[in-house]
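Encode chain A's predicted structure.
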Amino acid sequence: MNDRNTSGQPSPKVTHLAWGVVDVQGVGRFKDVILYPGGAVVWDWTVTGTRHCPGIQRSDVDQAVAATSSESGLARIEVLVLSRGMESRLGVGVDSVRYAESLGMEVHVAPTEDAVALYNELAATCMVAALVHSTC
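Encoded structure for chain A:
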């Protein structure tokens, strides 16, 4: 992991987190969000068929990679933070973690509050992305 973000675009910080609410600095309010260097987009589970079980899919990881690439000109994500929900009910399959690691990412999985705290800590220092689920 680099000691600074080299994308030219910082990852936006989460300024407020509550049940069903993720406020992202300079971007807006979301329920579920994909955060990446340079921005944030709605994490729409219907696009990939994501459900609480089995949880985060390889295609969700691909959405984070695609968002980063389109905004930052093929910027590489160094660290990917995957949130499990406020009550840790969102699954994260080993296959999804291994897939992200095969793309060269360091992966962290945590309940949403911990995941957001880690993401915010890393946002200024490296190329970090996160998939954040703000309910169960």
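The mean pLDDT is 89.
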